[in-house]
């Protein structure tokens, strides 16, 4: 089976795309030649006046279409032809040579179009992809258009299934491993075929690790599934610490002729879950140090590239993570490959909605019609990837207490198990979903259970109505009372059936249930499928202490577009805790790592809890806000910065935060000891100090048992020597635009101290064989577009994304700013 990228020479049209519009050549005012992947939303001005776009970060959602002319040479005569779309958001309608070839509603799943009846061999062909994306189609930034790869797949008339061969480890012993190879073979000829299926396994060193042949007879016009078992001696096992990958090569052979073939990578590993040892990978208990991630890549929008995926996973792993959750939809192929190669466990999730929509035009409109295809594509895509250790059938599903709609969960779980019984099934259940309309009643029940008599005030939102059904707003309003509500008998019983359908029970924001559910349901295995970053100290103690609790996934590991400002600190205290911020906010600002890949304070605090090595990190709250009320939502952590540069704030009070797993911390300013105090008096692994800002060097030394274990320091940046620094994270990119390089830009002084206090406009230009497809900062409320060529630094930093433009040659990228020397970065496009 031949797979080749089908990303070149597309034409994009904003709006239009209907048959009538095409007939009269109307609706095509905005036309652009593009190379896929492409995201229409990230290339448009945001619409701050449209409140319906709030959840999407005020990025526009439009109907658009793409066209492509192509020629299939005579070598394709008599062959099968498919188009695979790895991601189109959303409601894609595919026309080939004017004929309707198929459609696909789900914006996050891959899908296949059998193009064989419609294409013309040896002649010109025309494909038209219409994307029907209505306003308010997602709770976060969705992107718009063909934002992942398109593949042209061709094969003989005797061929494997279009999704390829399935390979997984069976029995694993120290001396050998059983490898199961499953092939769907189709005979679309008019004659009986007698041939062989040949399978070969190759170890990481390139040596043959096993081989086998199976003779088959296949009648005309039929298809069959075949199972083969191969045995690998002395197997090298895959896990997150040692991501060892083998290769497989499988073919259908008729004498000397190879009718079809497939190849790829897989890993040999064993997964077990039980309430006594928790999750075990290859017999070793693993606690999941997890983080949720959305699909967008910040400044380049929803477009996915191999390098973007590897960049994210590598930085997450360096920060201490060993697992990611693809929230709330199937993970991309690029991320799967990155997690396989770098070593990262994956929770692969199906959807955010079932039968009930959460916003006007989301997947809930189509789920009942397309769920089998969408789940099948998710499982087939993930099957050969050892990084995937569980499937999730949903996130915060509202129907779980409804005795009719909850049955969908059993359908989904059973269907997944019928295709893949090697991985457990979970569901990210938020018990707080049962609160809407019952809050006062359940609070009264909880207080009575605790022997308290309390009149519960009616919870209202800003409009004076009952609390809104939007779940994040509900939880933000409840604050500390949520924990009490979660102990309600009504809620426990309300989630019982949904949890019983699963192999592992995922809880969103419900750590208060871990111990009680472990006693009430001793056969359940639990984990935090979504948790608050600020609660890691409490949650991780439960993970380490309770064997039936296997991990914690924070919301969120990497910042994302949409759900604007939910983690940002406000400096005006309001009566109501405002969760979603108004324009110009565009990103959530609640990630451990920001939009351009820089670790934020909570990431360093998390590291001190997860890692056993001696650590110390200094952060400083901006002194200009020291005496102003701070309002931080549940998804926020701190406004502190890794900086000791605050021009104009000399002599003002300042709060210093020290993150460490030591016992004591000693703070110094310009060599003078300010104070020594115990760690963890207010919060685990944090010591807070009050001092006065003066330029120079702020340093901390931490101690355990009186012995110095670690140090950190911050220096004031020299404004006079601050210049532009820029560095590409890879110097060579493919000329066809199939991958990118990032250039990280910063304002640093002569000693390489980042001046986080300086906001400066920097203009970028490019010459040669490349193009800029994204440029900007991590600022959650910037009004700049990521297609602008001038952007202001935020906390001293910017990032640019560079892509090949179809030509081979040198690329010259220049950054310029007033008062600074220009900086040039050179790359090559090959």
Descriptive overview:
This protein has 830 residues and is mainly β. Helices cover 14% and strands 36% of the residues. It has an eight-stranded parallel beta barrel with strand order 24-25-26-27-28-29-30-31, surrounded by four helices. A six-stranded antiparallel beta sheet has the order 3-2-4-10-7-8, with no helix packed on it. The protein has a five-stranded mixed beta sheet with strand order 40-47-46-42-44, with no helix packed on it. A hairpin with a 2-residue loop joins strand 37 (697-704) and strand 38. Helix 2 packs across helix 3 and helix 4 runs parallel beside helix 5 (407-419). The longest helix is centred in the middle third of the chain and has 16 residues, at 367-382. The radius of gyration is 28 Å and the shape is globular. The model is unreliable at 458-468 (pLDDT under 50).
Strand content: 35-45%
- Spatial order of the strands forming the largest sheet: 24-25-26-27-28-29-30-31
Compute the CA-based radius of gyration: 28 Å
Through-space gap between termini: 26 Å
**Spans with pLDDT under 50 lasting ≥5 residues?**
458-468
Coarse morphology? globular
Number of helices: 13
What would the average pLDDT be, to the nearest integer?
93
How many strands in all?
A: 47
Largest sheet properties: 8 strands, parallel, barrel
* Structure classification: mainly beta
Q: Percent of residues in helical segments?
A: 10-25%
Topology, pairings included?
Layout: E1 2-5, E2 10-14, H1 19-23, E3 30-34, E4 64-71, E5 80-85, E6 88-89, E7 92-96, E8 99-104, E9 111-114, E10 124-131, E11 145-146, E12 150-155, E13 158-160, E14 166-172, E15 176-187, E16 193-202, E17 208-218, E18 222-233, E19 246-254, E20 257-266, E21 271-274, E22 278-281, E23 284-285, E24 288-293, H2 306-318, E25 323-326, H3 333-342, E26 345-349, H4 367-382, E27 388-395, H5 407-419, E28 425-429, H6 439-449, H7 471-478, H8 481-485, H9 489-494, H10 496-500, E29 505-508, H11 514-520, E30 526-532, H12 536-545, E31 549-555, H13 601-610, E32 616-620, E33 653-660, E34 664-669, E35 672-678, E36 686-692, E37 697-704, E38 707-715, E39 723-728, E40 732-733, E41 740-748, E42 761-768, E43 770-776, E44 790-792, E45 797-804, E46 809-816, E47 823-829
Parallel strand pairs: 24-25, 24-31, 25-26, 26-27, 27-28, 28-29, 29-30, 30-31, 40-47
Antiparallel strand pairs: 1-12, 2-3, 2-4, 4-10, 5-9, 5-12, 6-11, 7-8, 7-10, 13-15, 14-15, 15-18, 16-17, 16-19, 19-20, 21-22, 22-23, 32-33, 33-36, 34-35, 34-37, 37-38, 39-41, 41-45, 42-44, 42-46, 43-45, 46-47
Helix pairs in contact: 2-3, 4-5
